[in-house]
Amino acid sequence: MTPLQAIPLAVAIPVAILVVLGSTLTLIGALGLARLATFYDRLHAPTLATSWGTGGIIIASALMFSFIDGRPVVHEFVIGFCIVLTTPVTLMMLGRAALQRDRAEGRDPFRDGPSGDADGNPSAGS
Amino acid sequence: MTRLVPYPFLSLSLIVLWLMLTRFSLGYLLLGTALSLVAGQAYSALHPAKPRVRRWRVLPRLVATLFWDIMRSNIAIARLLLTEGRNGRRSALARIPLSIRDENALALLAIILTATPGTAWLEYETATGVLTLHVFDASEVDHYHDVIGKTYEPMLMEIFE
């Protein structure tokens, strides 16, 4: 009997649900990154993977290995902690670089007003 | 004591982190302690604003609110991404004036907004205190104005200021 077969159904079902949830959200995020048209929109897609995408898989992993080992296994949460703390740094750097580029090229996303269109696309002909 | 351990909470967290990633033994404890003290010294060279947490009991409420918000916006963004091109979604830039000034509170707000899908922190002007946010779904701009101004800012203020 493998360790996996020893897991009672009551644990296996939530673990399966969380793994499927986490990986599905990550996949949707990745698809979004590929399909979205503008840079600013693309910033949003991977946040699905860094929030519940990672979260679901981490919780599932902690739950399953805590059961197999018979002791609380929590070091997965360190991964989650580090992802949550480091994502803003990259995101802000990319976002500000994009803003800087847009301004340098004379298409300030703010010119349409305080909450105007933010496509970040060059207008036709420019 | 303060000179040796400038950031006791940071050093303690690093020791706990180290022990979580290895196994508990005296050797690892000593090694982890030494590393965390060095890290604390290195960190103080950056002269960060020392966080002063005034009310710890607000923190669980903040975490709970954030948990639900992340769940809610995960579903919303996943749905928008799956129907992309058919739902007429537009993104928008929102300029939100913030009243919090504390560096650590702002850092925490940046983490909160980044962890919540649908909002991307683009820019914060220190002089005016205006935050530029990129909002994935333009119809949610008012919602985020509300959430930041009425939910997160008061909580962060209670914690830090």
TrEMBL record, chain A:
The keyword Repeat does not apply. Residues 101-126 are annotated as: Disordered. Residues 101-111 have a biased composition (Basic and acidic residues). The keyword Chaperone does not apply. The chain crosses the membrane at residues 6-33, 45-68, 74-94. GO terms for molecular function: sodium:proton antiporter activity. Keywords: Membrane, Transmembrane, Transmembrane helix. This is Cation:proton antiporter. It comes from Paracoccus sediminis.
UniProtKB/TrEMBL annotation, chain B:
GO terms for cellular component: plasma membrane. It is a multi-pass membrane protein. Keywords: Cell membrane, Membrane, Transmembrane, Transmembrane helix. It is found in: Cell membrane. GO terms for molecular function: monoatomic cation transmembrane transporter activity. It holds the Pfam family MNHE. Signal peptide: none annotated. Its main location: membrane. Belongs to the CPA3 antiporters (TC 2.A.63) subunit E family. PANTHER family: NA(+)/H(+) ANTIPORTER SUBUNIT E1, NA(+)_H(+) ANTIPORTER SUBUNIT E1. NCBIfam families: PRK08965.1-4. This is Multisubunit potassium/proton antiporter, PhaE subunit. The lineage of its organism: Bacteria, Pseudomonadati, Pseudomonadota, Alphaproteobacteria, Rhodobacterales.
